[in-house]
Each structure stands twice: as C-alpha cells, then as structure tokens.
Amino acid sequence: MTEPASSGAVRWAVVIPVKPAAVGKSRLADGLPGGVDRAALARAIALDTIAAAAQAAGVDEVVVVTADDEVDAAASALARVRVVRETEPKGLDAAVAAGVATVEAPGRGRAALLGDLPALAPEDLADALERGASVERGVVADSEGTGSTLVTAVPGVPWLSAFGVDSFARHRAQNFVALDVPADSTLRRDVDTAAHLAEAAVLGVGSRTAAALGVVPAVIPPSGASESLA
Fold this sequence. Notes:
GO molecular function: GTP binding; phospholactate guanylyltransferase activity
Helix content: 25-40%
CATH topology: Spore Coat Polysaccharide Biosynthesis Protein SpsA, Chain A
Distance between the termini: 53 Å
Strand content: 15-25%
Structural class: alpha/beta
Number of domains: 1
Order of helices and strands: EHEHEHEHEEHEHHH
CATH superfamily: Spore Coat Polysaccharide Biosynthesis Protein SpsA, Chain A
Number of helices: 8
CATH architecture: Alpha-Beta Complex
Shape: globular
Keywords: GTP-binding, Nucleotide-binding, Nucleotidyltransferase, Transferase
Radius of gyration: 17 Å
Largest sheet: 7 strands, mixed
CATH class: Alpha Beta
Catalytic activity: phosphoenolpyruvate + GTP + H(+) = enolpyruvoyl-2-diphospho-5'-guanosine + diphosphate
C-alpha cells in the first residue's frame, strides 16, 4: 500500500465536473422566485464553486470538466483554472476521471469536488484537503450525510470515485476514510433544491449566485423552501 503523505505536504489538483446548465440543477426549478433563470443560476453556482476552489491554500490547479460553453468561457478566465471539454457527457464519475487523467504532475494529490457549493469558503476546502493528505483516499459527506461533496486521493494512489445516489456509503464501502470536517463547514452544503439554496444563502453565497438571485443573500431565511425564496 502507498504510504500516505504527511499532513499538509500535498499539493492538489481539484477536478470539478459541471453539467450543461440546460440540464443541470433541474430540481431548483421548484421554489425559485419569479424572474430567476434556473440555467443562469446553475452556472453562477458552479462558477462560485470554481472560484472558491481556485483560492484555497494547497490547490495548484482547478480542472473544470464541462460541455457548457458559457461555463467554459468564464472559468477559463480565472487564475489557476483549466477547462477540459466534455464532448459526450457520461456522468459524474466519467467526467471526473477525464479530468484526473489530464493532471500531469505525478506528485500531486487529486480531489473531485462537486460544482454545486455556492457558499464554499476557500479555507474550508483547504482544511479538508489538509485532512485528506493523511489518508490514501478521503471523502466528505454532504449536510444530509448521504451524498459526497469531496473525494481525495494522495499521490501514487489510483483514482477512484463513486458519485450518485447514497455515494457517501458507497465511498465508505470502498475504504474511503470519512474526513472529519466540522458539521457546519461550507464544504458540506451542496445545493439541489430551493431549501438547500436558502441554507447556503445564510452561510453566504458567492457574488455570482447572489447576482443571479437578484437578492442580498443574507436576508434569505434557512427554511421554508419556496416561501423563503419568494
């Protein structure tokens, strides 16, 4: 087995798969206030996630895998971000694997981060990656404890991921170590529904997401789904 790197010694490439906005975040359509474009919001959420990841300590590059032209153009303009075009989307694991395959530095750790974390704070990602440096493969659960928002592999460990329904349990069954990030970490609040978005807004969403919503994020209450976003 590969000896895990010492904590904090690993530099990382973070791969973020982003679905085309036309089909991404379809569950957000229910509960959004009038005038909010779901596709534009989906792109904003992804770009806020990408920007935060690129600012995290320990991250050398962010690899965005997408077929969305607008995400491609906007992400390519960000420092430390590289885009891999996905010509035929085949699911999250395939997209992540395609991104990981382009990471050329053999001594670099690899991580896959979901692109739906609009409140992500760079320091929360940096903290999780530092924890991931001490295990071969790590995983961070979402706020509900069923999904996975981040998976990691240190240098020399073959890449593996199992995103999808109940992904946290499936990652754990494949010997991923649950990374002990705080329960209130912004890394855990992914957004699939209007209720999730309201909770993320209380944490403080990024500027793109706030602009797409057309509101001051801090005034959105954390519960009540459609009523809270009306």
